[in-house]
Amino acid sequence: MAELVLRDERDGLCTLTLNRPEALNALSPSMFIELRAHIDDLAGRFDEIGAVILCGAGRSFSAGNDLKAIQAGETAPTRHFQAETIDAMEALPQPVIGAIQGHCYTGSLELALGCDILIAAESARFADTHGKWGMSPIWGMSQRLPRRVGVQRAKEMMFSGRVVRGREAADIGLALECVADDQLPERAEAMARSFLANAWFTLRADKMLVNRGLNHVGQAGLEFERENNPGRSPDLEERLAEFGKG
Fold first, then answer.
1. pLDDT of amino acid 103
2. Is the pTM of this model over 0.70?
3. Which is the CATH superfamily of the domain at 5-196?
């Protein structure tokens, strides 16, 4: 049986690829089980892997939750396994870049929102279609989408179920930028490599402070940063010495 999530590691960068192109990478429970195994492994390998890219094989990132699997009675190991898998990805110490082409609907949008940064291809199509099927979000849409695009915009997307194309996604902050489809893999890797050129210690600190700081507001957020700052990277002196040579 083919792997449902492919994994490639090169020079500190790990790329995870959803691999059901014949089904537009629909998110079956089995796919989530494989994805979770990779995420759990990466969480403990932050000295070897400094950044992660999540993408989809074929013409779509993912068409969303696998409705055929739901109809067939396929279930995840626990009630909230999928949601907890997205939580685990969001909590990875490494920055995670989502490279999105084609469909990114509903459950797959919830998955994408667990990434730190999204890069959209021109073909990208984002939508929350819970209302079309009479479902309610349970994988994080109601919390992560408003934080990404603002409360009013999130409600409009959720209430209407309309499709947001790649260019608009970049305009409203759902994605950081939009590029031509044939440039998407190269752009995602270039961004990841630019992160890897900095201290991985600082990347982890930045991500932790920003993500956990969002649970606090105003002065409490500032105090959280001061109290939880992990300090200097072990390679600080080495980096300063290199700077001095320039």
1. 98
2. yes
3. 2-enoyl-CoA Hydratase; Chain A, domain 1 (3.90.226.10)
